[in-house]
Give the backbone structure.
Amino acid sequence: MMRGPALAGGAIAVCAVLLGAAVTPVAASDAGEAARVARVTAPATDFSAPEPFETRPGGAATSFKHPNRDAFSQPSANMPFERQLDFRVGNGIFKKIWVSSPSSTQSSDGLGPLFNARSCQRCHLKDGRGHPPADGETPVSMFLRLSIPPQTEDDRTALATYVASVIPDPAYGGQLQHFSIQGHDAEGDMKITYEEETVTLGDGTEVKLRRPVYEAVNLKYGPMHPDVMLSPRVASPMIGLGLLEAIRAEDILAGADPEDKDGDGISGRPNWAFNHETGEVELGRFGWKAGEPSVAQQSAAAFHRDIGISTPLFRTHYGDCREGAQDGCRDAPHGGTRDGTVTEATDDMFERVVFYSRNLAVPARRDVDDPQVLAGKKLFYESGCIGCHTPKFVTRRDAIGEEQSFQLIWPYSDMLLHDMGPGLADNRPEGAASGQEWRTQPLWGIGLTEAVSGHTLLLHDGRARNVLEAILWHDGEAQAARDNVAAMPAEDREALLAFINSL
């Protein structure tokens, strides 16, 4: 196998052949190129064989290494050799264990004072998916988001203009932190109880689903607001983020149909978010409700809320500590300068982590020509799953990273919000997202969840113990597709699951 620049060039050439275009830049509005892109991203109609380049869900950036526990930790395969050092340094910072200040390890101090994890890696172990805590376990890769309805005209204006996506709880902030540095109390604990219910499929098969109920208990900073809204969130896989960022906003918005004008029952809507880098309101792409506009801001928000670390985007050193109830936390020692000109995660450190996060490669597809997988793909299309799980996009030529430029990718997501019904509702709005809406999750890499993360728990709170349970929780706009799957004979259902697990 070729490595380094030779591999990158060859892979980009492959993509160019597919699109029938040279890889030299051309205007995005070029009608000929737009027609070619439309042709290669059109839904499949022939399921007798794999589509061209279907083994490469991340385009030329796809990794063909290690379909095992390291499957989500590989760099973009088209990354030039000279950029791989930045990736590996970013990986080191991603794994860095932060400590409290003051400390002799000045490049690693500033933790907290309140936090959910001491490193990025603790939430995204092996760059994979988080999970709910087991009985008696303190959660690390899952937490409770907190917010309240707007209380003032200023609150309503901030939400209406997307300067804020939520109004935090006045005492506990935007999420419940389960850990603290010495001398400070952690905020409290997340309590989960499960209620079981049985669903009977069309062929008589019974499937037991578990419905979680969440509470915030052992609170150390007084009561929460009486109207506080709780939303559980499991850490998402890190793969392909730079490629999702590189999809043209126009291509995502083209799939939106908020009024369901085509009458198919699916009304995808965009979320919008204030971008602290550009000072503009932009399309939301990341997070369970598409509440963040970029990889950089998603990374900075995680540093700020999850670890209590300041970055060039969010320069306050006290993380999510609230004025009034948590003044002692806000006054704790930190690892930056008082005026915020030097942050705990420095400019260089932050840039390396963002580069690493943009370039975690999507693993290659497996078994694309297996007859059962091909049959399952046909059923996936016929059942209506692609109404939200859009198979393909072509990324922008002017992507932030050269590795993401002009690639045919297969995320199986339209990146839009959909009403998933009351069963999955957290009843907590975020930006333009209602309490029943969620962003369509990309499916690439889903079949490697167990190999990477050691479990098969899915959905925003890990309630689904496998792919079938996740499908059966679909409701609202996805009810028709869910009902089609539930009505399948066992053979078809197994083929559908084989296809999804090949992604």
Observations:
- The two ends are 23 Å apart (CA to CA).
- The chain has two domains: 4-80+360-501, 86-239+294-358.
